């Protein structure tokens, strides 16, 4: 018992001594470890800095050749910035979308070979009955156009992967005829199309529109025009100036008030003006409500104030108002004959780049779904595609 106690007591002593020794050496050890880690860490950083330099050089060589992408962020090339979004769906709301779409390069010359495209923007409730005719129109001209479709939000299109309309629906909202929601849908189309930096011209179309000429002619006509085709005129009378509201002054005076077709073709500069607008939008929203049809006045008036020298003041889309009423004539199966097109092509002259021209319309409306079959039959002969 005593010896055990002794042993314990003896045992106690060395432990205590050890502890005292340890507590003396511990800070020293820690310092040694710390220095070791410091040196190691420093070494590793230097090595990795050299490695990264090496790998980044290698990385540049991989881009465009290998489908393998390194997990760390790749070096950006100009292609990263100019490549159009691979998917048109996004979850930006309109505020975010318009803001993003308003980005404009300040240096005007492109440091790469830019092939400018025409954005064809379809505003429809849902189906596109003229799609087979458009498919034929676009065939063989890949790289010179892009397509955007705005529908009711509940509508899902069913185009096959082979179609030019496949996955071209943009996030949409309800658009009501003659109301600001219609202009908002048009701005949404423009904003989505602006996200592709290659889009230079923007054409607004409906499901009842058809092309009147082949793609080569349409592309040449639009790309060589000095002006954008926004219909815009000063109309005396109840359906023109009569829709003006005095509360818009002095931002919009009566003499600035314009009317024109909803169906426009504009260039990139004007498209940006439309998406970035915060001056005219609230005014038109409040003071242009039915019987003021805002889609006939808002962009027309705003652009006539801001950039009158860039407007042709006429629309490229043929329409027949001769039957009277609030809506233009709709043409069906029985109307589609060669004479129908002769009537559109002949007997009209207009100004193109300040010169008289007999080619005034590139598109026509309104065509009923029943017109499709005779159109497909006549188009090689009459429309040139
Ligand atoms: C979009 O989201 C932003 C941020 O949440 C918000 O400030 C803005 O009001 C939203 N805009 C619309 C049109 O809902
Ligand atoms: C459309 O598609 C989405 C997602 O695929 C689905 O959730 C929705 O129910 C569909 N709507 C209709 C009207 O078919
Ligand atoms: C409208 O008229 C006022 C007063 O004459 C003028 O100050 C203003 O600049 C005009 N607005 C436009 C858009 O020309
Ligand atoms: C279009 O109309 C504006 C006035 O609103 C005018 O300044 C411009 O010169 C016209 N454009 C053409 C091509 O005539
Ligand atoms: C387009 O139409 C014009 C005139 O009709 C014709 O000369 C030209 O060859 C056509 N282009 C194509 C690619 O079919």
Automatic annotation (TrEMBL):
Kindly give the membrane topology term recorded for this protein: Single-pass type II membrane protein
| One cellular component (GO) term of this entry | membrane
The UniProt keywords, alphabetically, are: Glycoprotein, Glycosyltransferase, Membrane, Transferase, Transmembrane, Transmembrane helix
Cited InterPro entries? BC10-like, Glyco_trans_14
User: What is its subcellular localisation?
Assistant: Membrane
Where is the chain membrane-spanning?
30-52
Give one GO molecular function term. glycosyltransferase activity
Q: Name one Pfam family in it.
A: Branch
Can you name this protein?
A: Uncharacterized protein
Q: Which organism is it from?
A: Carpinus fangiana
